[in-house]
Amino acid sequence: MSTVNMLIAGFGGQGSLFAGKFLAYKGLIEDKEVSWLPSYGPEMRGGTANCSVIVSDDSVGSPIVNNPDVLVALNLPSLDKFEPNVVAGGDIFLDSTLIARKVERTDVNAHYIPATRLAEENKLGNLANMVMMGYVMKIKGMYDEASIDKALDKVVPPSKPQLREPNLKALMAGMEYSE
């Protein structure tokens, strides 16, 4: 991996910012150059939220991802808004439980993951975001067990240690999923 420019987008409360922060910490732990830039409206929960994540072997010049290599769309408005911006040959990962339509572009790789359904089936509540991250890491060759554990330790608040294991299970559900 040299550089991955990723955009993770969804409604506020779906965990797009948390997922991006997880990947950023994971990159830092792996001695990568990293940028994490959140963007959300004043509504936050229920409004739109997205974050740009860059993980690179080289210095990151700008934290803004206008044309992602990887788009993770957790809802239809995010897919509608950001699909046109993905670079040709890039990857679009979408939660097929919540997004009924197919990716319209033919010059990108589309991945349909029923993340919300998988989270529900595994009694993982609203951790579809981390199911998606597990699948993205698998497909993009970003899996590293040691850095995943350390990154979870960074993003799960010390006041809520009971959330660490469900997040790990959600990542594993995504890793085990096959289209």
Write the layout of secondary structure elements.
Layout: E1 3-11, H1 16-29, E2 33-40, E3 48-56, E4 70-73, H2 76-82, E5 91-95, E6 109-113, H3 115-121, H4 128-140, H5 145-155, H6 164-176
Parallel strand pairs: 1-4, 4-5, 5-6
Antiparallel strand pairs: 1-3, 2-3
- What is the count of helical runs? 6
Which word captures the global form?
A: globular
Q: State the separation between the terminal residues, measured CA to CA.
A: 23 Å
Q: Unreliable segments (pLDDT under 50, ≥5 consecutive)?
A: none
How many strand units? Answer: 6
Oligomer: single chain
CATH homologous group name: Pyruvate-ferredoxin oxidoreductase, PFOR, domain III
Summarize the helix and strand pattern as letters.
Answer: EHEEEHEEHHHH
User: How many domain units?
Assistant: 1
What portion of residues is helical?
Answer: 25-40%
In order across it, which strands form the biggest sheet?
2-3-1-4-5-6
What are the defining features of this structure?
about 180 residues, 6 helices, alpha/beta, globular, Pyruvate-ferredoxin Oxidoreductase, domain 3, about 35% helix
What this model shows, in words?
The protein has a single domain (3-176), classed as 3-Layer(aba) Sandwich (Pyruvate-ferredoxin Oxidoreductase, domain 3), CATH 3.40.920.10. The protein has six helices and six strands; from the N terminus they run βαβββαββαααα. The radius of gyration is 15 Å and the shape is globular. Helix 1 (16-29) crosses helix 5, helix 3 crosses helix 4 (128-140) and helix 4 (128-140) crosses helix 6 (164-176). The protein has helices at residues 16-29, 76-82, 115-121, 128-140, 145-155, 164-176; strands at residues 3-11, 33-40, 48-56, 70-73, 91-95, 109-113. The protein is α/β, with parallel strands linked by helices. It has a six-stranded mixed sheet, sandwiched between helices. The chain starts with a strand and ends with a helix.
